Amino acid sequence: MNNLQKVPSVALIIGSSGQLGSELASALLKERPDQTLICSDLHQGTAPDGALFEALDVLNKPRLEDMIKRYGIQEIYHLAAMLSAKGEQKPEMAWRLNMEGLLNVLDLSVKHGVGRVFWPSSIAAFGPGTPRDLVPQWPVMDPRTVYGISKLSGELWCQYYFQRFGLDVRSLRYPGIISWRTPPGGGTTDYAVEIFHEALRTGAYTSFLQAHTRLPMMFIDDAVRATLELMRADGERLSVRTSYNITAMSFTPSELAEAIQSRLPDFQIDYCADFRQAIADTWPAVIDDQVARLDWGWHHRYDLNALVDEMLTNLAAASVNP
């Protein structure tokens, strides 16, 4: 990482029990073992050794304010959200959690002098008007899901708080994130996690997306590293205050299945598209992330073959040693 900024001594992760939050907590502690790290989620949970845990509903603004004041929070990673598939089933709840939660974090960060905030956007912020291939940093954005609408709105709020109040908010438009450590969380790209579990458990999988649905994807280790690199980058180098495009690879369910079959020849896949197919059809196939690569040196390390090896190896080991 170039032009590193000083690592804040007190950080808060909101939504630490989720796919990204749990991995990010461990990475933050590894980055600076003497840092005070507070993990939080809606229900009582656990934190890695060296961190604290507090239950927190981000919609409870007084409770969030108390935590910021009590711990002297200097940096916030706000990850709590309802994802795309679940959001279409509960649209009003998704909007309230995704939007009001973000505004609570931004408002209290300004009020109490929090130095830096990270908030994740998503490829769900794009839509059918966005180019399908090689989506630029500043494209047409016309999301068709509540999750996507909240992400696009959130990007603009982040930019507004930076321009109006000088709050150092940073964001990434994550593609589908694939991890062996945590279960799927209700997203449209979840097939790319489920398929590995079923390949090892039953030797077969039914995809809820059609065979040739190409979407951008990323292994969790790259997603965590991108987050930390962006948060430690020199702010003067950052040209984007909505959210940066990032990506690592793009593949279809059939291409992923073929990669798995090259390691597990008996694996079988079939296809039965559900409501998530309509969501995926509005998302891009390939992302252009050259602005992130130029501004703060982003580069991915995992391609499709490396991803498949990591997932199968680690899931197999986890099943033997649960």
Please outline the helices and strands:
Elements: E1 10-14, H1 19-31, E2 36-41, E3 52-55, H2 61-71, E4 75-78, H3 84-89, H4 91-111, E5 116-118, E6 121-122, H5 146-165, E7 169-170, E8 172-174, E9 176-178, H6 191-201, E10 204-207, E11 215-219, H7 220-232, E12 244-245, E13 249-251, H8 253-261, E14 268-271, H9 276-280, H10 290-296, H11 304-320
Helix pairs in contact: 1-7, 2-4, 4-5, 6-8
**Regions with little confidence, pLDDT below 50 for 5+ residues:** none
What level of helicity do the residues show? 40-55%
Overall number of strands: 14
Predict the CATH topology of the largest domain.
Answer: Rossmann fold
Q: What does this molecule look like?
A:
With 322 residues, the protein is α/β, with parallel strands linked by helices. It folds into 2 domains: 194 residues, Rossmann fold (3-Layer(aba) Sandwich), CATH 3.40.50; 113 residues, UDP-galactose 4-epimerase, domain 1. Helix content is 41%, strand content 16%. The chain has 11 helices and 14 strands. Helix 1 links the parallel strand 1 and strand 2. The protein is globular. The mean pLDDT is 94.
